[in-house]
Amino acid sequence: MEWxxxxxxxxxxxxxxxxxxxxxxxxEHGRHAGLVRGGASRRMAPVLQPGxxxxxxxxxxxxxxxxxxxxxxxxxxxxxxxxxxxxxxxxNAVTALLAFGLPERQPHGDLYKQSEQLLDxxxxxxxxxxxxxxxxxxxxxxxxxxxxxxxxxxxxxxxELIYVSPKSGRAVSRKGAGVWxxxxxxxxxxxxxxxxxxxxxxxxxxRTTGFFFEAHLAKSLHQxxxxxxxxxxxxxxxxx
Length: 240
Known about the structure:
Layout: E1 2-15, E2 19-26, E3 30-36, E4 53-59, E5 68-75, H1 78-81, H2 85-101, H3 109-119, H4 125-142, E6 161-164, E7 171-173, H5 174-177, E8 185-186, H6 199-221, H7 227-239
Antiparallel strand pairs: 1-2, 1-4, 2-3, 4-5, 6-7, 6-8
């Protein structure tokens, strides 16, 4: 078995004396792990950095084997990640969530392109937070926990949608919330793509999306959500 693809490096762990096992989000083959011989060497250390864009050739005797990678660098994002604390926290959150949530060996072509575009914005602090929020919404959608914010789940109304149901992920209007308002999640306009969002509104929106990562996705996987996402939100909160 053999294929060639592009991918975003998610994780690296040492294997044996000189090899490494890498987990990569590839364009056509989804999240896919493989062994890199010599991957723990000094020569490969600058190449195998989380967030790096790689040209990959995977080989294995059988399709369900771990297999081995030949990895060549296409684009390093190390300099962008080190341009500031937000960039580094953002890269860590993106790679951690992809490694955590994506099923193995299932293609997600559209999400791959969005992830690539998001990581290319790492050094642009003005655009990063909003782009990251949009990416989280896309990730939830891809994993089967997408939010439906088009109309009120209780009344069908499309006006004054200010809440999100924590159970269904659907929007709820002010009138539809009734006595249950204090049990609902906030729905800032930025979640519906409305208006110009500041950092405070984006942070509120990320706390809402975070509920679905923690209470729905993490619960379905029987694992806690990645700490890297929490560190990113802490940093955004301190910036306010």
